[in-house]
TrEMBL record:
Residues 20-85 have a biased composition (Basic and acidic residues). This is Uncharacterized protein. Residues 1-102 are annotated as: Disordered. It comes from Hemiselmis andersenii. Residues 1-10 have a biased composition (Acidic residues).
Amino acid sequence: QEEARGDEEVLQVAQYLSGAEERVEEGERTADEARRKRADDLRRREEAEARQRAEDEAALEASKKREEEARKAGKSAQEKLEKFQRAKKHKEQAKHRAEAASLLSSAQACTSLVEMKCDRDECHFATERAHASGECAHEALERVGAAVERAGMEGEEGAKRVRALLYERAAAVEKVANMT
């Protein structure tokens, strides 16, 4: 009987050890499965983050491209506007120069009466003959003066003579006004 009991105890111990071994193996399988699941989750998360980064970079690149195109279009439009404005200004200036040249030419009968006189180191325009003649209408001189100024032709000899006549006439008017 003791032998049977000993066999029974050995059998129980063997069953216990077998069950413990199965539990350990089951625990290892569960741990392995949990590790695989975590690794799969991590891989999926990293892939999703990589896709999101790629999408964000593509969106940023597209945004930069649109901004660059908009800037170029705006710059192009601005350049066209500036070119148009320069051409318009040049055309207007050419028109003003032509008008001023024409008016100076028509006023030559008057401006030829203005003489340059020099005393020692000083020179000035003598306008008395021009003022005394009927060739120098004040309104015509004012038109010539304004046209010359618009055209930027103040340095022309005829323009200097017109300016001298206008200055002398204004000085004479002021002198008369101060007398009264």
